[in-house]
Amino acid sequence: MFSSAIIVAAGSGKRLGSSLPKQFLKLNSKPILSHTIEKFENCCFINEIIVVVPFDYLDHAKSEVVNCYKFEKVKKVIPGGDTRQSSVFNGLKEVDDTSEIVVIHDGARPFVSTDDIAASIECAKTEGACIIGVKAKNTIKSVELDGFVADTLIRDSLYEVQTPQTFKRELITAAYENSEKNGFFATDDSALVERLGAKVKIIDGSYKNIKITTEEDLLFAKMILSEAKDVN
Hints:
By secondary structure, the chain is α/β, with parallel strands linked by helices. It is 35% helix and 24% strand. The protein contains seven helices and eleven strands. It has helices spanning 32-41, 58-67, 84-92, 114-127, 169-182, 189-195, 215-231; strands at 3-8, 26-27, 30-31, 48-53, 74-79, 101-106, 129-135, 141-143, 149-152, 159-168, 201-204. It has a seven-stranded mixed β-sheet, sandwiched between helices. Strands 2-3 form a two-stranded antiparallel sheet. The protein has a two-stranded antiparallel sheet with strand order 8-9. It is globular, with a radius of gyration of 18 Å. 38% of the residues are buried.
């Protein structure tokens, strides 16, 4: 079964305070984005990779990431849109015509494992939609606009959702087409599928599968790499 990965790396990364978008910042001498792509390059279930980056960094991504590290599965590097949702939709339009499974992943999550990628694909084959997540460690409360607590949620039923998020191609395409038609926006891909009334299966991921957004995240990422090097 032909599987396509869309790696979304079209953000500006302003919260890190760098002139260079965060996905191109170095993590132990390699761009963060290259660490991420490498996981999909090494996953035997992935047939092609579509990388979505800011328009102004198309050449940079090709030369400093794809060509520099010789990623053979990267078939296209394309410009993103104004939002993550539009960037993913741009990627969906570029997947191979024979693709049956689409794996969507954040470019700033370099610690996803090939096992988790493979597990999400296997799950999506049978369930149609599969996302990776971890159980909430802390007590979660919903809060009113005035700052007062509205409710304390049941922690055992709460997950922190990550990527990859993996779907049968026809399902995720229909979800994105429906969202564009009706002007519906969401913070992750699975919410668009839920909007269609389809069920989404969640499987356990890893607490190390962080999204690098802040300086603290970058420090934690360096610690994770250092720990992995010590183990090896």
